Give the backbone structure.
Amino acid sequence: MTEITRDQYEKIKDVLPVQRGNVRIDNLTFLKAIFYIAENGCKWRKLPKSFGPWPTIYMRMRRWADNEV
């Protein structure tokens, strides 16, 4: 299973974009959701609700991709 640990996240968090505004999903949870999608090859709509709303995860992924994060 591919998952990022808190210790791994602590090593990279300073190079990730800082979320502005009303942020419901932290970057660690967001990264775990991206790894889940990549590992399972599932559709965005099938992302488990424990990661938060799939449109929120998808839109952040698109913003990061557009900004070459």
